[in-house]
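Lab intake sheet, docking and co-folding queue.

SAMPLE TYPE: protein with bound small molecule
LIGAND NAME: pyridoxal-5'-phosphate
LIGAND FORMAT: SMILES
REQUESTED OUTPUT: full 3D complex as structure tokens
PRIORITY: normal
SUBMITTED BY: R.K., bench team

The fields below were copied directly from the construct record.
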Amino acid sequence: MTANTKIPYKIYLEENEMPQAWYNVRADMQNKPAPLRNPGTGQPMTAAELEGVFCRELVQQELDNTTAYIPIPQEIRDFYKMYRPSPLVRAYCLEEKLQTPAKIYYKFEGNNTSGSHKLNSAIAQAYYAKRQGLRGVTTETGAGQWGTALSMACAYLGLDCQVYMVKCSYEQKPFRREVMRTYGAKVTPSPSNTTQVGRKILAEHPDTTGSLGCAISEAVEAAVSQEGYRYVLGSVLNQVLLHQSVIGLETKAAMEKYGIRADIIIGCAGGGSNLGGLISPFAGEMLRGERDYRIIAVEPASCPSLTRGKFAYDFCDTGMVCPLAKMYTLGSGFIPSANHAGGLRYHGMSGIVSQLYHDGLLEAVSVEQTKVFEAAEYFARVEGILPAPESSHAIRVAIDEAVKCRETGEAKTIVFGLTGTGYFDMVAYEKYNNGEMSDRIPTDEELAASLAQLPKVAE
Ligand SMILES: *Cc1c(COP(=O)(O)O)cnc(C)c1O
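RESULT FIELD (auto-filled):
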């Protein structure tokens, strides 16, 4: 490739250039992520224990710290072909508008009906459930993206899909709910009277509008109390990061095709799955001592697990029924303010991303939501795509870095993950357009109070 060859606006890989295997970054990590622990005994969770809740093959993937490449089954690759390879886009219009010498690229994962990267793992999880001969899966959804992705995947494979949707979202986001029902999912507002834990919560707090932690507890109970069902989760877990590595592998392949070399890689971080998937192959190069990159995780200032949390064992859910995970956490009792990036309102962070951050492979920054929506609108007007509020966290920092390049005159190459579209987030955009959006940042005292409740785990 000669230096003056113009890079196309959209770099598409051929179907046969799509990855044949997922990349498991744990294989190259010297410090492996800490094991999940049983909240009762404090001992590492065994495969047998996990298989009561999760699908067998997914438990193997969850526990596998050594296999670098795990083949993507043909049926999943066939499904991926409906919306992958996804484009790596050179943001020429954004560069010009910013008058920056930086080269900006984004990997666009919003090109499917569910509207986000979550479908990459939803189809994999549904596939392994089907192959195990299960009847269906249960899950929770907050903002609705994960529930939508899982509904699509289950419809394709003919699996039953039961979604516990946080009650306030169920009522405020009727369109998301109807998309899921259109794909055949059964959607129950949580807390509900269909589970013991739901009935208990309703008896104590009849007017509650629900929470993600409560919906998780209901979905887990629904899975273990029905024959032929397992529970699935859309982020945080090692297996989800593994499936999302398809994002990073395609990004890397597209860059290699045109001789592009990234200096800075940026992703938004909720539970850490899209960021972890995007950076995995690049972090692998760093871990093997082959290359160096600057990697930046972007989180909301209202839910700053990496930048202000503690690296410790904690519960993954508010109901304290799930295993303990060692991660950057704000405490499982931490309730973030009503930030509009629903997908980033999680108290913890993937164990893999947490360990990489702890070991200094990546940086983290937090941004306020008005700044995020300012970047979202700027991007929409320049590049055309209406971004999800979650994705716009990455846009914010990509723009900030490009502006720095304008000031220093450096022509850095910036790559960021554009995880999804924001069509179902128009109430948030409306608030921003009306000047009614505010930033609610937790105080040190609030975080200290929540962190004081961390479980005591001997390591
Ligand atoms: C869920 C979601 C996220 C955040 O989840 P991660 O597991 O951190 O990737 C980001 N963007 C979109 C569009 C989402 O739906």
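REVIEWER NOTE: The two ends are 51 Å apart (CA to CA).
SIGN-OFF: pending second check by T.M.
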